[in-house]
Design a protein that fits this description.
By secondary structure, this protein is an alpha+beta fold. The chain is built from 15 helices and 12 strands. Helix 3 (22-52) packs antiparallel against helix 4 (58-83), helix 11 (313-335) runs antiparallel to helix 12 and helix 14 (373-392) packs antiparallel against helix 15 (435-447). The model is unreliable at 471-480 (pLDDT under 50).
Length: 480
């Protein structure tokens, strides 16, 4: 094969066809040389282009390779055109032309398939339009960035002002603000309580700072807030090795900067308030004691005065009973620190004798109900009158009689209190209303802002009170 390609003995060089004329030889040589040089330069340019355009896909690279081989092969045919002027390697030239033909045909066949890919390459005008659009977008982004930067500066200024105001408001106050992570470790502290060092608190927990009996209840509360996500408020006593105090604490769940769960705690020192409350309790106890002594003094004065006048013993007995009724209601209010009184407790205090003497014949039926302090005395006096009359004249004066006291809330939110006697016919009502009737039918309903009925029925006495406690009149405005 090599011999066949290099066999030149049987052929004449192509220069003989040109009669070895220098001018004609020079023309062919120069033309073929320049064409070959141009054909060799084009593949080099294609190779540089492909190497620098890393974004080309495989179809683009394949087409570039075919064109480079095709053009290089064409350049080689022109080189051989110069060679055969002197050396008749016509067989090698023919093989090279055949190779060039195959590559040219392959390029021509592949071109229709690769042409759609080439057509999708943006034209310079489209690229310029896209560049202009991107530049406009870039300018818009730059403007937005400038506006955002301005807003950030404004926000930072506002934040600084808010922080300054916050610090000025809390400086020297009794309010502490804390931040804790999900492990209950302090991450931020402002105005720490009990003289604690804020730097020592960062990274620590209550267990590291407070006594265990102070730390454990607080940590239980905070874990409950983390679990439920609902804020809670409580009063707690905090104690360290050097100091202690009472605090009104509010715990609220928040999201930390890292997205995790955390807590913000505000604690207000109420130690002075607690001391004042304790002082008030002492004063109230002393006041209650003196008030009861005053009632005793009034009763003693009444007895001493009655000896100088012809006063019936029944009057003194009745006066003592009513003063005792006031004292019983007073005791119940004192136990509740004058914040109101439980209705059942008021009734039990007024009917102590009846409940002990007739335990199976006196029934109390009703849910828990709290009377305002202003109403407790009047309701107590009414129950006392009814109980005293039941023992003397009514259901408890005979063995077969019974008393039922019931109470419940009405649909409109009022209180309905009923005294019902049964088993014994009602005694005859007094010909003229006395002070007891005034208490039952006038003073008590007026005191509770409601109304009352007092009836004497064949099967027993009945007294009903509707108490509109929401519209309670002040006791000072109710005349006796």
């Amino acid at each position: 094969m090599f011999h066949w390609l290099t066999q030149i003995a049987d052929f004449m060089p192509h220069g003989m066809c040109l009669d070895w004329r220098p001018g004609l030889m020079a023309l062919h040589i120069a033309s073929d040389a320049l064409i070959a040089a141009a054909y060799f330069a084009i593949p080099i340019g294609i190779a540089v282009f492909v190497r620098r355009r890393a974004d080309l896909n495989r179809q683009h690279i394949a087409l570039s390779l075919l064109f480079a081989v095709f053009i290089a092969a064409c350049g080689m045919t022109h080189v051989f055109s110069i060679v055969v002027l002197w050396a008749p390697y016509y067989a090698a030239e023919g093989v090279l032309k055949a190779f060039t033909a195959v590559v040219s045909l392959a390029t021509a066949v592949a071109l229709p398939f690769l042409l759609p890919q080439l057509l999708r390459i943006p034209s310079p005008r489209v690229l310029q339009a896209e560049i202009a659009s991107h530049q406009q977008t870039l300018r818009a982004l730059e403007a937005a960035r400038a506006q955002l930067a301005e807003r950030v500066v404004i926000s930072e200024t506002e934040t600084a002002v808010t922080t300054r105001r916050f610090q000025a408001a809390l400086k020297g106050s009794q309010v502490t603000v804390l931040e804790q992570d999900a492990d209950l470790r302090y991450t931020w502290v402002y105005n720490p309580p009990l003289g604690l060092d804020p730097s020592a608190m960062i990274g620590a927990t209550e267990s590291d700072i407070l006594f265990s009996d102070s730390a454990e209840p607080i940590q239980r509360l905070k874990r409950a807030v983390l679990q439920s996500g609902a804020p809670q408020r409580t009063e707690v006593k905090l104690a360290t090795a050097s100091s202690s105090g009472w605090f009104d604490m509010r715990v609220e769940p928040v999201r930390m900067e890292d997205g995790g769960a955390g807590l913000v705690v505000t604690a207000t020192d109420i130690s002075s308030l607690k001391r004042q409350e304790e002082h008030l309790r002492i004063v109230m106890r002393e006041l209650n004691h003196r008030s009861k002594n005053l009632l005793t003094i009034v009763m003693s004065l009444a007895r001493q005065t009655s000896r100088s006048f012809d006063v019936p013993d029944a009057f003194l007995i009745r006066l003592e009973e009513r003063l005792g009724s006031l004292a019983s209601a007073h005791d119940e209010l004192a136990r509740q620190e004058w914040k109101g009184a439980d209705l059942r407790s008021v009734i039990e205090g007024q009917l102590k004798y009846q409940l002990e003497s007739f335990p199976d014949r006196v029934a109390l039926v009703g849910a828990a109900c709290r009377l305002p302090a202003e109403a407790a005395h009047y309701v107590g006096m009414a129950i006392h009158e009814l109980g005293s009359n039941a023992v003397k004249y009514g259901a408890l004066s005979r063995d077969e009689g019974e008393v039922r006291i019931s109470w419940a809330a009405t649909p409109d939110g009022a209180l309905q209190l009923d005294w019902t006697e049964s088993g014994v016919a009602a005694f005859a009502p007094p010909a003229a209303p006395g002070f007891g009737s005034t208490i039952l039918c006038s003073l008590t309903p007026k005191a509770v802002g409601g109304s009352a009925t007092h009836t004497f029925e064949p099967h027993g006495v009945r007294w009903s009170l509707t108490a509109l406690l929401a519209r309670l009149e002040p006791a000072a405005e109710i005349g006796l």
